[in-house]
Amino acid sequence: MSKVQTKEKVLEVQDLKLSFYTRRGVYHALRGVDLNLYPGEVLGLAGESGSGKSTLGLTIMGLIPRNARLEDGSVKLDGIDVVQPLRDYGKNTSKFSVKKNEKIIKKLNKQLQQVRGNKISMVFQEPLTALNPVLPVGYQIAEAVYFHDPDRLLRRALSRDKVTQEDMREFLNILKTDGEEKLIQELKSRGLEGLDEQILSVWRRKDIHEARKEKIVLSLANVKLKSIDKLGLTIYMHGLHRFPILSRFAKNSLINEGYRLAVEILTFLGIPHPEKVVKLYPHELSGGMRQRVVISIALANNPKIVIMDEPTSALDVTIQAQILDLVKDLKGNSDISFIFISHDLSVLAEVSDRIGIMYAGKLVEIGPVSEIFQEPLHPYTRMLMEAIPGMDKSVLKTIPGSVPDMRNPPTGCAFSTRCPFAIDRCRTEDPRMVEVSKDHQVACWLVKGGGRHAGSV
Ligand SMILES: Nc1ncnc2c1ncn2[C@@H]1O[C@H](COP(=O)(O)OP(=O)(O)OP(=O)(O)O)[C@@H](O)[C@H]1O
Question: 17 CA distance to ligand 1 centroid (A)?
């Protein structure tokens, strides 16, 4: 069964409308976007510059600037609408106030701190801006976990401290005979939560022989905590870290555990010598490595959704390929769902299960990657396809005209001003999304029910 067919949604975006209030006028950046995301899929988002891809990604994260008015719509994560306060204000106010909006954004940011990272996280184009130059990268990964889920670090450290080699042998047997679920249950019943992720992070590795995996798992039992860390964890366990002088101890001990977790994540992402890498500073790493560290931070809290906004655009082609391989690997080995934003369709073709095409703040077509590439239906999608640079650059076409001024988008279909097939109706009435085949929708008056395009571009 395909990931889309399961129909269980991790994210549901409905009728999202957002405008930017500026001195030069009101830009209607999102004009009614509907979108679903399913577990474990990669949804690619494409469209020319200014079509609203980044704004959509940021709005889903609840990360909008103060001049952004959420006029309507919802963003449901696990059924909970995370933008409700912004929508309630943006929709119901007759006079939009940036100051009032800012207050609501600040309040919402506090509420969403837990959601961000834990459920949803984002990777941006330029890794250097996402990393702190004065902290080792391992610290930054550790801190992301410390910030969102310090208890997890505590559980990990304590569980290791409690087990013997004999216990580990028993767990390995359970794992080999009954599988991962049974092991997780067993550890839970013995109060050893936190050990499961450590054992499984070794067990799931494909790059090492089983005998070596067993050795590594057994060695997890011999890691005794340093007394200073024991003290720090005890302080945290008893809630004494609320006293400023003691909080340092607790944080240091938890961060030390976070370093171990950082090594596991970097190993999982196929980074060589992770023990060394965690101690390096961002400027000591290559661009590709930095982006992998940013991805590690995004993955550190096991989010359900990761939004990647042009994650490979600042990288050279070979590194770009490695990052794409990484996303493909993650897709195969985890339940994480991705929204992968790129203006480059050939990049999206590699990683996506479905592709959504945006134009002037709307989705105009969305469907399985094979259909979008083999039988694009919207004239805009077809023209974008023809603009992909191929082997023979001489046939490369560009899309005539330019994206509309979003202060005053055209009436009817926004693409009608550039579409060679536009009919009168296109200029007066905005087409709605219509399902043309399973999971494939398109908004174009020229596309008949059967999904055949009337003209040929
Ligand atoms: N803070 C802002 N204030 C005013 N206008 C903005 C702001 N942020 C984005 N916009 C405008 O919103 C529109 C959509 O921008 P957005 O960055 O989402 O497009 P995009 O498809 O991601 O483009 P790109 O590929 O260039 O990143 C553009 O017209 C942009 O100028």
Answer: 14
Quote the ligand 1 centre to 157 CA distance (angstroms): 44
For the Cβ of 20 lying below 6 angstroms from any atom of ligand 1, the answer is: yes
Q: Which class for 414: exposed (0-12), middle (13-18), buried (19 or more C-beta within 10 A)?
A: buried
Among residues 354, 370, 390, which one ends one of the domains? 354
30 lines ligand 1 (CB under 6 A): no
For residue 134, give the H/E element and its range: none
Chain-centroid distance of CA 33 in Å reads 18
Nearest residue CA, atom 4 of ligand 1? 20
Domain span at 116: 4-129+303-354
pTM to 2 decimals?
A: 0.89
Q: What pLDDT, in 10s, does the model give residues 214-266?
A: 998 998 887 778 888 888 999 998 988 888 888 888 999 999 999 999 999 99
The count of domains in the chain is 2
For the Cβ of 232 lying below 6 angstroms from any atom of ligand 1, the answer is no
Q: Are residues 140 and 115 in the same domain?
A: no
Q: Is residue 256 part of a domain?
A: yes
Measure CA of the first residue to CA of the last residue in the chain; give whole Å: 34
Closest CA to 294 of 131, 69, 178: 131
- CA 236 to ligand 1 center in whole angstroms: 44
Is the domain of 120 the same as that of 142?
no
